[in-house]
Design brief:
- By secondary structure, the chain is of the alpha/beta class.
- The chain is built from six helices and three strands.
- Strands 1-2-3 form a three-stranded parallel beta sheet.
- It is globular and about 35 Å long.
- The N and C termini lie far apart (34 Å).
Length: 106
């Protein structure tokens, strides 16, 4: 179902959270559902295997792998600090839902 959803149109960037060894990442890139993939996992061995799998299929240049523990507030803050600025429409959406990153993190 994820691949069907991704096939509706090509995205600029797809984020694969908890990517593991790439069971979703590799098909998404191989089928050209996105131009760039950001794969996030806390397991260095899994990310290493994902990088080998991406390279094996010639997809390594289109992926960014991040070792982040999404259960760690410090890691989430670090990840958030590396993200590009939020567009005005995304900011307006966040404001309309009265949600901010500060409310999500202790």
């Amino acid at each position: 179902q994820v691949l069907d959803f991704c096939s509706q149109e090509q995205a600029q960037v797809v984020w694969d959270m908890f990517c593991g060894q790439g069971i979703i990442s590799i098909p998404v890139l191989a089928r050209r559902h996105c131009k760039q993939l950001v794969a996030v996992d806390r397991s260095y061995p899994a990310l290493g295997m994902l990088q080998r799998n991406l390279d094996k299929h010639g997809l390594g240049s289109r992926a960014t792998l991040l070792a982040v523990d999404l259960g760690s507030p410090a890691d989430l803050r670090s990840l958030a600090s590396r993200l590009p600025p939020v567009s005005a429409s995304a900011t307006e959406l966040m404001m309309s839902q009265e949600l901010s990153i500060n409310e999500l993190l202790p």
